[in-house]
Design a protein that fits this description.
Layout (H helix, E strand, L loop, with lengths): L2 H23 L1 H6 L1 H19 L6 E2 L17 E2 L3 E2 L3 E4 L5 E3 L4 E9 L3 E7 L5 E10 L8 E2 L4 E5 L11 E8 L2 E3 L5 E2 L3 H5 L13
Parallel strand pairs: 1-13
Antiparallel strand pairs: 2-3, 4-11, 5-10, 6-7, 6-9, 7-8, 8-10, 8-11, 11-12
Bound molecules: zinc ion.
Length: 208
């Protein structure tokens, strides 16, 4: 039997199982309306499909106008409290657009003490991309939205433990097997897109 057929046979039962789990967890949502449940099921199927895909080998620069050579490597630099820096800091002026480095789905939008205002995107291979210290979020960005490398997630700032310091994006890549250094994966965006005064901006697509 060919590999793709085996994979397809595997994916369907997993999708069905995951859908049942989602329905069980979200009992109150079922009462709230079938529309919401359908959206959650669609989202669950998207997530399973993403896990089955090979992870991105190349990440598009997440800060508009910045090139790879401008990034000073801060991977695993010691930080307060015996922490190692798990990501890269990409410095830019406050308000510079932060674009998704990959295709994926918005799985988290929220504030925490270290990262400040953050967005997490789930991409292919179950990798999670973490965008932190945002000054603000892109208007109407919501959990479950599909994003592409043209989608603005938010704007560079210094929220969280970056408060008072220079504005930058903290970019983290979390694979199922552990945290990865984003720098070797990062690629410059095409120059014409990078220097355009008004970039083509796609609002996040609503999956519901
Ligand atoms: Zn950082």
């Amino acid at each position: 039997m060919r590999k793709s057929i085996v994979l397809k046979k595997l994916v369907l039962p997993v999708q069905v199982l995951l859908s049942i789990v989602v329905v069980l967890i979200n009992g109150p949502a079922i009462i709230a309306g079938t529309e919401k449940v359908t959206a959650k099921l669609v989202f669950a199927v998207h997530v399973v499909a993403l896990y089955a895909k090979a992870p991105d080998q190349k990440l598009e620069m997440p800060v508009q106008g910045v090139t790879r050579s401008q990034i000073a490597d801060t991977w695993h630099v010691p930080r307060a409290g015996d922490r190692l820096h798990e990501g890269q800091d990409i410095f830019a002026q406050r308000g510079t657009p932060v674009l998704s480095a990959t295709d994926g789905y918005v799985v988290r939008i929220g504030e925490n003490s270290l990262g400040g205002q953050t967005v997490s995107i789930l991409g292919a291979g179950g990798r999670s991309y973490y965008y932190a210290h945002l000054d603000s979020y892109a208007a109407n960005l919501a959990i479950g939205d599909h994003v592409t490398t043209q989608t603005i997630l938010g704007y560079v700032g210094n929220t969280g433990n970056a408060a008072g310091g220079p504005t930058h994006l903290h970019f983290g890549v979390y694979a199922p097997e552990g945290v990865l250094n984003p720098l070797p994966l990062l690629a410059d965006r095409p120059a014409e897109k990078n220097t355009a005064r008004t970039p083509r901006i796609e609002p996040a697509r609503k999956s519901r």
